[in-house]
Amino acid sequence: MHELAIANSIFQTVLNEVALKKLPPVTLIALRIGALSDVVPEALEFNFSIICRDSPLERAKLEIERVPLNGKCQACEHEFAVEKYVFVCPTCKSGQITVTQGEELDIAYIEVEDNVENET
Ligand SMILES: [Zn+2]
């Protein structure tokens, strides 16, 4: 269950950001998750919602963008979408492939409540 570890790491990162910049409560956290990272979004959301209870992130929703797996052939430099984890160049059939995207697990951006300043 590495989703729990990932959820924890996202939580800590955003919480630090909120404390550092004195941000209002977070409403949305946008993530970019590569196909190779092997994350189950439902499990991640579930773990995250439990960790966030009674914190400034309590109402934050996760928005998960799946990043497809791409590779680049080391022999002919052809770049292509890797299907079904077959790391073979469709042009020259070389098996020397560098992953160019699909391993990311990034926080793309966060959104916070913007009506806090109106409170008197
Ligand atoms: Zn090639």
Brief sketch in words of this structure:
This protein has 120 residues and is an alpha+beta fold. 26% of the residues lie in helices and 30% in strands.
Explain this structure to me?
26% of the residues lie in helices and 30% in strands. By secondary structure, it is an alpha+beta fold. It has a domain at 2-68 and 102-113: hypothetical protein PF0899 fold (2-Layer Sandwich), CATH 3.30.2320. It has a three-stranded mixed beta sheet with strand order 2-1-6, with helices on one face. It has a three-stranded antiparallel beta sheet with strand order 4-3-5, with no helix packed on it. Strand 1 (26-34), helix 2 and strand 2 (61-67) form a beta-alpha-beta unit. Helix 1 packs across helix 2 (41-51). The chain is elongated, with a radius of gyration of 19 Å. The model has no long low-confidence stretch (mean pLDDT 93). Zinc ion (ZN) binds next to loops.
Q: Which labels suit this protein?
A:
120 residues; alpha+beta; hypothetical protein PF0899 fold; three-stranded mixed sheet; three-stranded antiparallel sheet; 30% strand; elongated; binds zinc ion
Shape: elongated
**Separation of the first and last Cα atoms:** 45 Å
What is the CATH architecture assignment of one domain?
A: 2-Layer Sandwich
CATH topology of one domain: hypothetical protein PF0899 fold
